Amino acid sequence: MTLSEDLNFADQGEEFDSGASPYPVIFGISFTPQIIGAIAGVVGLAGALFIVLNFVMPAWDTYQQQQAKSGELQGQIDQKKATLKQIDQVKKDLADAKQQQIQVLGLFANEKTLDTLLLDLNRLIESGNAQVSPNAVKAKLQKFSPATSKAEPITDGSLGVAVNNKLKRISINVEFVGTYEQTQSILRNIERLQPLLIVRDYQSVLAPVQTTTQTGKAILQVGPPPLTTSFQLQALMPLTPEDLAALAPKEPPKK
After folding, report:
1. 30 near 21, Cβ under 8 Å?
2. Domain total of the chain
3. Using one digit for the tens of pLDDT, what is the confidence trace for 157-213?
4. Which of 76, 91, 107 corresponds to the end of one domain?
């Protein structure tokens, strides 16, 4: 064997060395870049799944619970706001009802208006006499007398059963003399008076014509003949707390 042949062993060793894998081998598996990339992807996916299951999902469940709780609280707030609006509306309705009650009570008579009723009625009757001639018939109040000494509760159903034990009235007998036109004007003016008044038992007849004065002097009257008008004027008033207490049924004495 020559020296050149010995040198060929070195060349053959290089050929053997060149056949070895340049990538790490574990358990007979060569970890090429593709395999390493696949393993890294699987590890990343597993890590992402671990994070989702252990961190994201609990946080999402907590968020859902808080959102439901927030919606429930918002519903309670909205309900309370609606209740407050209803309370404000009830207060407004109550104030309107009290104002209407005051206005309605103002339509009824009271002790003050009854004290001036005679003066008001006499003023209404005399108000048209300034425009008539001296020889014309002049309206005159002839009678104003209370038919009852005090106001009495209405219990007879004459104004309807619903009014019983809620109002009281005082009746006044009225009589005046005047022409037909004067009588119409006086009755219209009575309707305009402040207290609520009811005219009952109305009657008008021709009045006797006075032809002479007390000294016997003849009187020449001009114009239409006078009428004597009589009626009962009823003034209505609401019952006071004292009146209601008097009408309340008495409890039997305890044994």
Report:
1. yes
2. 2
3. 887 888 788 888 888 999 999 888 889 988 888 888 767 788 889 999 987 765 555
4. 107
φ/ψ (deg, to 5) at 196:
-75, 110
pLDDT digits (tens, 9 = 90+) for 81-110: 888 888 888 888 888 887 877 666 666 777
Residue 149 shares a structural domain with residue 229: yes
Domain shared by 165 and 235, yes or no: yes
Query: Range of 139's domain?
Result: 111-208+225-246
Domain with 120 in it: what CATH number?
Answer: 3.30.70.60
Tell me the two tokens of residue 76: 């309670």
Integer Cα distance of 77 and 80 in angstroms: 5
Phi, psi of 153 (to 5 degrees): -60, 145
pLDDT digits (tens, 9 = 90+) for 9-52: 445 444 444 455 566 666 566 656 676 666 666 666 776 677 66
Integer Cα distance of 232 and 215 in angstroms: 35
